[in-house]
Each structure stands twice: as structure tokens, then as C-alpha cells.
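We include the pair:
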Amino acid sequence: MPSSLRLRSTADVLGMIPYLLGFHPSDSVVLLGLRRGRVIFEARGDLSGAVDLADYYAAVVTRQQVTDVMVIGYGPAAAVTPGVLAIDRELTALEINVLDVLRVTGNRYWSYSCRSLDCCPAEGTPFDPVSGPIAAAAVVAGHVALPSRAAVQRRLAPVEGLARSDMRRATARAGRRLGELIAVAADPPTAVFAAGAAAVDGAIDRQRSSGQLDNDEVAWLTVLLCHLVVRDHAWERVDGDLNVHVALWIEVLRRADPELSAAPATLLGFAAWRAGDGVIASMALERALAADPDYALARLLAEAVAGGVPPEAWDAARRGQTTRSGRV
């Protein structure tokens, strides 16, 4: 969201949430963490598990070093009320200031914190979740809010039909090409790393210039990423304009052979987490672990995302490593 955007009302906050998440939530609980009036953290979970996970949500919030929190439930009153109030109690017990607890049903909202019928009528307060001023400002700034979480999942869905058949053939060609490279190389590990680094760097450069990889290039990249030294090189390159890396690894993941999807899915998860897109990060890491439940990096990142570890922690750790090693 634009950093200069001023949120002047509850309706403004509710108009902002779909653009923070990337989709319009439903049957969800959303937590917004603020520091000195600025939203620095958002988290979403299924409404059905909110009561049982209230202590978990509170623990996630405490890691963010926020000064204030808002709790919003999306759905009918009977489904929303127990969950949001349970989370409110857990946050209050931890002495975290809860600015408001809200329910959103359709295009109306109710506050559990407000007792005045003058500003919080029994029939709810109407707002425009689609074309209000905050939504309009977000669209102008290039932000997108898809209709649902399922719509976000479809962005990551594997290609199908003819496109999938073409990728299978390209992957078979890439496998033969890699086998030939290893067979003739005097130093196979070095040769694989050199080929992998070139493929990764070329893909990033192509994405940065708004180009697209062809099937053989995607397939070659995915077979090389099976080698951890190549995967780690790609991991280290996730920096700078993170949107470039998110877009690249979404495209590679969609077209990758499902058996080779763990590495690109993990790289997407890492890039999205660092970019502050927890929804894409979680979905990508789910895909990685579905492809390979023992993929160590995906497991580590999934724990970080689920635990609410802020991406700034990675930057801080990286700065510490650079300082200790003497590298700039």
C-alpha cells in the first residue's frame, strides 16, 4: 500500500485489508499489527479454528513488536463472535493493546468494543469494500485484490492440457542434457554449478526485463535446481526488487514438472515471505512440502512463516553474518 496513505476511519482500514492480503477475505479472522499508527503486520486464518488457535495467534503477534492490534472476523455473527473474542482475551492477557474487535458481514461491520448506538448501530455500519476511496487509491497504485483465497491459489496452479504435455517433453530433454553434461565434464559438480548459476542468473535478468522463459529454459532450470548448490545460489539471489523474484518463481512453479516443484516452490515461498506476502508464501511452501515432505529448507521456512517470524529477521541475520565475515 502507498506509504503516504492515511487511514482515517474503520471503513478505511477495512478497505485496505483485501489489498494487504491480495484477496477479499471470507470465513476468516484477520489480525492487523500497528506500530505508532502504521500497519506493519497482517495475518489471516480460517475462522473455524480461531477459538482453538487463539493463543497461537496471540503468540504470533507478540513476535512482531507491535504497539496496537486490530482483530477482524469475516462471516456471520455466530461463527465470528467466539473466535475474535477468544483472540481478544489472549491478547489482553499479554498486555497487548487491542484497538478494536470487528465483525464484517457483507458490506457492513460491527464493533465488539463500541457500546454507543450513535456510532455503532445495531444493524451495523455500511461501507464499500470494493470501490471506496482506499480501494481506489490501492488500484491506482497498482495493488490487486483477487475475489477470494481460491483465486490466489489458481495463480499458482500447475499448467494443464497441451501446456503440461509440452513441459513434460521439455523436462525429458533437459534431463538428457544434464546427463550429457555430467558424463563429459572433468569436474561434474563444478560443471553443474556453473550451468545452474548461469541458468538462474539468466532467468532473473529475463524477468527483470519483462521477458519470458521458454519451455526448454524452464525445464533446464528445474532439473538444475535439484542440485542444492544451484538451489542455494538461486536462494542467495533473492534480493533487490523482490517482485521480480516472486513473479519469476510463480511462473517456474506453474510450469515445473510436479516431481521437480519442491525447489521452485520453496524459492517462491522465500521471495514472497521477504516481500511481505504471507499468503503466497504459505501456499508456495505447502506446494513444496506436498512435492517433498522432507525438503528441509521448505520445512524451515514454513515454520518461520507459520510462527509469524518477520522477514526483517532474515535481513538482520544476514547483516550479522556479513559483519562477522568481513564481507560487504
Q: What stands out?
A: Residues 161-184 form the longest helix (24 residues). Residues 322-328 have pLDDT under 50 and may be disordered. The CA atoms of residues 18 and 81 lie 21 Å apart. The beta strands are 28-35, 38-46, 68-74, 97-105, 108-111, 125-126.
